[in-house]
């Protein structure tokens, strides 16, 4: 076991893949391969030795695979067998992830047809580490071997994704969303299949108060990648309606303020990806804030969306914007007032020369609104730093 671990490290040293090297590893490859393949093929050895042999051979193929010649396909077939074994499958998934990420572009075509459906089936297993490892493996396979994957292989994976997108495990959700982002970038034609249950789960997760940090960032990247694919029924306005529709229709009560922030960030992510849509949508949000018939929920979402969009896109061309936000400071709803304060600070970040003097002037001249204006200033300082 320890010998295999040392061998694995030796392989990394004699053929580093991340920088130039002068050492000739060729004379040692045959011996390294022969001693490791013997352990990899052995069935009657200790479990730890089995796993170390898989990891070591994974490193050998990753670092020296271009020198293995005819031994490579037969060795990959052994990996396929280990993938089918419940005891060795997790270690094999990690080894395949390493191989798939190799800059040597190892030829995995002999096993992909059988391996990808097996990997897809792992996503429904009740083993968290296996799900995470499998999502990593599938992500790197999509990135580096998209030309070797068929539509049916990808469909098999997509069928298993909906249960993984849930607030019950945000890290698994984040990995699943990142996989979808890779898919949108590399294999956009496959996204026509996500319009049903996958998108339903994604929109549901956006409304969860638990969507924060890395999972929220992954969601924003996904929406940006999705909207620029031009997939039918998943364009800018389609996605905008899915995200904001329930608030406007009042069919869903969003109990947590965090849900509004998440929706607003997704709206801004879409708008950054489709800047031509920005002026019309910003104009609509301004009207929503002004409209006396708008509910507090609509005003809250509109203000937060204006803030998130304005953080990244200069909105100084919107003549009414300053007055509309200042009027919202007089709302009877504390949440609307707080959202207006946040929006003013966030919009200011998009054009500091225009908005910072305005905020400072208002702090000086409007003593009754100083508390809210100081929160706007705090948002500006926090973002600028």
Give the class from helix and strand content and strand pairing: mainly alpha
- Compute the number of strand runs: 0
The global form is elongated
Which residues form runs of ≥5 with pLDDT under 50?
none
Oligomeric form of this entry?
A: single chain
Beta-strand percent range: under 5%
Query: DSSP helix count?
Result: 19
Description:
The structure is a single chain. The protein is mainly α and 385 residues long. It has a domain at 253-385. It has helices spanning 2-14, 26-41, 47-64, 71-84, 89-100, 109-122, 128-145, 151-158, 170-186, 197-206, 213-227, 236-249, 257-273, 278-290, 296-312, 321-328, 334-350, 352-365, 370-384. Helix 14 packs antiparallel against helix 15. The longest helix has 18 residues, at 47-64. The radius of gyration is 27 Å and the shape is elongated. The two termini are 50 Å apart. The mean pLDDT is 91. Keywords: Repeat, Ubl conjugation pathway. This is Cullin-associated and neddylation-dissociated 1. It holds the Pfam family TPR_CAND1.
Question: How would the blueprint of this fold be written?
Answer:
Layout: H1 2-14, H2 26-41, H3 47-64, H4 71-84, H5 89-100, H6 109-122, H7 128-145, H8 151-158, H9 170-186, H10 197-206, H11 213-227, H12 236-249, H13 257-273, H14 278-290, H15 296-312, H16 321-328, H17 334-350, H18 352-365, H19 370-384
């Amino acid at each position: 076991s320890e010998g295999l671990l040392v061998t694995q490290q030796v392989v990394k040293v004699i053929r580093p893949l991340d920088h130039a090297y002068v050492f000739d590893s060729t004379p040692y490859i045959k011996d390294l391969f022969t001693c490791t393949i013997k352990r990899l093929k052995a069935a009657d050895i200790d479990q730890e030795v089995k796993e170390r042999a898989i990891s070591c051979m994974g490193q050998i193929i990753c670092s020296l695979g271009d020198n293995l010649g005819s031994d490579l396909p037969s060795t990959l077939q052994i990996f396929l067998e280990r993938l089918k074994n419940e005891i060795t499958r997790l270690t094999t998934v990690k080894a395949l992830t390493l191989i798939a990420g190799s800059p040597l572009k190892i030829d995995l075509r002999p096993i992909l047809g059988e391996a990808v459906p097996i990997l897809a089936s792992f996503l429904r297993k009740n083993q968290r580490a296996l799900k995470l490892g499998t999502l990593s493996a599938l992500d790197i396979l999509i990135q580096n071997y998209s030309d070797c994957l068929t539509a049916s292989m990808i469909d098999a994976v997509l069928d298993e994704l909906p249960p993984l997108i849930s607030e019950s495990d945000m890290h698994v959700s984040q990995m699943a969303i990142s996989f979808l982002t890779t898919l949108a970038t590399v294999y956009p034609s496959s996204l026509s299949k996500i319009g049903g249950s996958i998108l339903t789960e994604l929109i549901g997760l956006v409304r969860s108060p638990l969507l924060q940090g890395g999972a929220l960032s992954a969601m924003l990247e996904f929406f940006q990648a999705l909207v620029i694919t031009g997939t039918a029924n998943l364009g800018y306005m389609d996605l905008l309606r899915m995200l904001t529709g329930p608030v406007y229709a009042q069919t869903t009560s969003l109990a947590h303020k965090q849900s509004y922030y998440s929706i607003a960030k997704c709206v801004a992510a879409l708008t950054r990806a489709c800047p031509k849509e920005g002026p019309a949508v910003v104009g609509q949000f301004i009207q929503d804030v002004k409209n006396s018939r708008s509910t507090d929920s609509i005003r809250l979402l509109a203000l937060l969306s204006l803030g998130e969009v304005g953080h990244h896109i200069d909105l100084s061309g919107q003549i009414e914007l300053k007055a509309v936000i200042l009027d919202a400071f007089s709302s009877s709803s504390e949440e609307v007032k707080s959202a207006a304060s946040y929006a003013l600070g966030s919009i200011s970040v998009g054009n500091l020369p225009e908005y910072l003097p305005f905020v400072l002037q208002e702090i000086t001249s409007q003593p009754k609104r100083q508390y809210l204006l100081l929160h706007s200033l705090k948002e500006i300082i926090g973002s600028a730093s």
